[in-house]
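Before the break, one more example. Copy the sequence into your notebook; we will annotate it together after we see the structure.
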Amino acid sequence: MPTRKVPPAAKVTRAAAERRTANGQRTAASRSAAAVKAPTRRQAATKRSAVAGTGDQPTNRRDDIVRAAAETFYRKGYDATTTQDIADTVGMLKGSLYYYITAKEDLLYEIIDEVHVRLASNLDVVAAMAGDPLTRIWALVHHNVIGNAENLINSAVFFRDFGALTGRRRKHIIALRDKGDTMLRELIQEAQAAGAARPGVDAKLTGTAINTMCNALYHWYRPEGALAPEAVAQSFADLAVASICARPSMVAAARQKALATPNRASVDAAVSAR
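Here is what the structure looks like once it is written out:
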């Protein structure tokens, strides 16, 4: 059989194809090597999270640290807690803790700010409510007690240890406290002007007493006890209105109107949006 002759042009075309194939293989190999050498930002973050955590599954380690700090502050108090205590609680080396924070106060502020967001949302929702002042007072107390009971540890740290904050952080929290005090005092005065509250009630003193009753819940309330947060919240709201209203029948009326308004969902939505 005669040997097939390959035209010169075909030889050139075949050689070019072989070069392109070789170049493509080298390029693919280079890309593969580069991918190994330079992981994406997400891959790097996942790897750091997995290394910082325990086991093979990556975790949100900062949330674990904040939770451990809240539990330790609640148990020992902020001043008596060391960063070593927090590291021991979360199960990590003390030095590794500073990968996530610069100082112990960072954790205190993050805990307190979570409560701050909820309390601020309570104020916003009640301010936007339609209705008489007694109904809004009932709703404000109800929301605050529910929030404190369902977030007992963080609330305890907030009310007990916020004085340890410094600078702008401290001023930020005090401003919220003053806003809540002012709202409740003005609602009591509004009820007095409408004839719904007794004129002899000292609005400032009574408002302070009501807020103290709500904020001191952590001293005695335990989630595993017989009282559900809703039961405590309704009882405290009834007490608050009963302490100022002109007639006893106004307590039940305020409760009925406040519960008929879907304010709780509004609070939760406002917290999620912040």
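The chain is about 75% helix and 0% strand. Residues 8-13, 25-58 have pLDDT under 50 and may be disordered. Try to locate both features in your own notes.
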